[in-house]
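task queued by scheduler; priority normal; single chain, no ligands, no partner chains; default sampling; output format set to structure tokens
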Amino acid sequence: MVALLRLNTLVSLSGLCPTRHYCYYSRKPRLPFRIRMASITETEAETASASKVILDSHLHVWASPHEAATFPYHPGQEPTLAGHADFLLQCMEEAGVDSALIVQPINHKFDHNYVTSVLKKYPTKFVGCCLANPADDGSGLKQFEDLVLKDGYRVVRFNPYLWPSGKKMTNEVGKAMFQKAGELKVPVSIMCMKGLDLHISEIEQLCTEFPSTIVILDHLAFCKPPLTDQEQLIFSRLLNLSRFPQMYVKFSALFRVSREKHPYLDLSTLLSQIVSSFGANRVMWGSDFPFVVPECGYKEAKEAVNLIANKASLSPSDLEWIMGKTATQLFQSHSAS
């Protein structure tokens, strides 16, 4: 007697429409995963299923030119790449990626209506990361709460370059939002695009003052394989952040941090060190769609992680955590209470 293993609730294989962009549509047959009921409990089955989910922890979507009539771009932030939801779904289907965290793009800035519409249309496929508005008047705090409590966003992104000139993430507004994130059980994702060394003191201060707030560092905190003593020191400081138990790292946007072309094998040493310091259960893969598409392709970005992990001699269990289990457990267990 056999029964189909129930998929994790984040997984939803949708019927998709082909597009003319980059990805090529494929409907390869998928074999059902069957297991004897007598040999495994329902709870164990759900745990095993969750570990197999492929979850992209970092990508963006924005309106197509046609959709922009309803969901306008922020002035001066009109995209040059296709990034609409249908294109993403096609790429995910071809690559065998089950679900994803959508990070609010700068193209719509603090107007979350497009991403919210996608989250509502595909509630079992996507979770949302909103963008913190650090305006001096404190209005961003109410917007953040509403996005979490009313629209179901499960992560908030701190972009330090959106803070008013001369202000840091540790100012009154930043601390209020960071503390509120902990109260709402919403992780804070931090982008250090101009270098971890510029922001690590702020990150350490926030983590020390508000230890209940989960922190995720985007894109390896923009640390590339070190070539100089200074770069090695900065990467060592990244590894040292593992002393904060609430700290996670995204192994994402590999094309941004590698010094080589696809499949970015120079990142194997960094990945090995990150896993050794943080544990694979605090590391998660992300593609940075749609920017990754012209760089190497979406499917190819996912496949690169397997090659890098193999060179780094990671275990199959470590790879499962990185490719979905970490993000699945984090975004489920830290959803708004």
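post-processing summary
- The chain has one domain: 2-333.
- Residues 2-333 form a domain with the TIM Barrel fold (CATH 3.20.20.140).
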